[in-house]
Amino acid sequence: MIKIEKASVDDIEEISMLAKNIYLKYNSHIDTEEGINNVLLFISSDNMRLRFFMEGSLILVARNENNSILGMIEIINYDHISLFFVDDKYFKSKIGTRLFEEAKNILKSDKYTVKASDYALEFYKKLGFIKLYNDIQEENGVHFHYMIY
Fold first, then answer.
1. Given CB 3.0 to 4.6 Å as the disulfide criterion, which of 32, 73, 123, 127 pairs with 141?
2. Nearest 5°: phi and psi at 80?
3. Segments forming the whole domain that contains residue 43
């Protein structure tokens, strides 16, 4: 039984580790060294805590029956997905879809943006996002597809 709920500050260390593991395994191969360092800094527990407290980011987690975190989504400014990761053992299990649907229920925005990794591009398309540019974008060594929902 998977439950979706708002994260607490006590969850941030586990969330940060999940994000780091999945990023390094699936997304980092096309980023430059500068880009990898920038992403790792962004997903660090310290920076995540700052966004949580100072910017009021919405962080939702998916938990299993053992209370382990299997997935997470972070939305900043009420409409931008800044982080979205699911444990790779649970890819294609609808956890990501459920996280996004719950975030939409809470925030009630009519549009969302994301800088999607190349690896996650097809997932975002299935959620209903469209690419704003044909080519992959690059910013500070990080490669992404700018998408809107």
1. 32
2. -120, 120
3. 3-111
